[in-house]
Amino acid sequence: MLAHLSTLSGLFTGGVGCIVGPLVVWLVKKDTMPFVDDQGKEALNFNITVFLVGIVLTVLTVLSFFILSPLTILLGVAIGIAWLVLTIIALVKANDGVAYRYPFSLRLVK
Fold first, then answer.
1. pLDDT, tens digit (0-9, with 9 covering 90-100), for 33-82
2. Do the domain assignments include residue 110?
3. What's the pTM value of the predicted model, to 2 decimals?
4. Is 41 in contact with 109 (CB distance < 8 Å)?
5. b vs e for 27-64, b when ≥16 Cβ sit within 10 Å of the residue's Cβ?
6. Per the CB 3.0–4.6 Å rule, which of 19, 29, 40, 73 could disulfide with 3?
7. Total count of domains within the chain
8. Is 35 inside a domain boundary?
9. Helices in 30-103 by DSSP H: which ranges?
């Protein structure tokens, strides 16, 4: 649960906490708590994926000389809302002891 909860620190740290929070929790507890190991990797993978999508949207905006701005802003808002909703769902599931697997997540940390 703490790995998913630490993700929300990104709301107050300009997005950096979205990756750093779960990374710290995962690194500290992965060897002693198998559930935290699994859910920490899930939270980390999902937040890295969302971060990469944000970079792609930013690059598309700049490369199109801001012509695609309305589209990329709309997609960015939709992704932000989906991020928040999925993080809350994961937090509730993990709190109940149920492993949660984020949809649309690259499995970069194994």
1. 999 999 999 999 999 999 999 999 999 999 998 899 999 999 999 999 99
2. no
3. 0.89
4. yes
5. eebeeeeeebebbbbbbbbbbbbbbebbeebeeebeee
6. 40
7. 1
8. yes
9. 34-63, 69-95
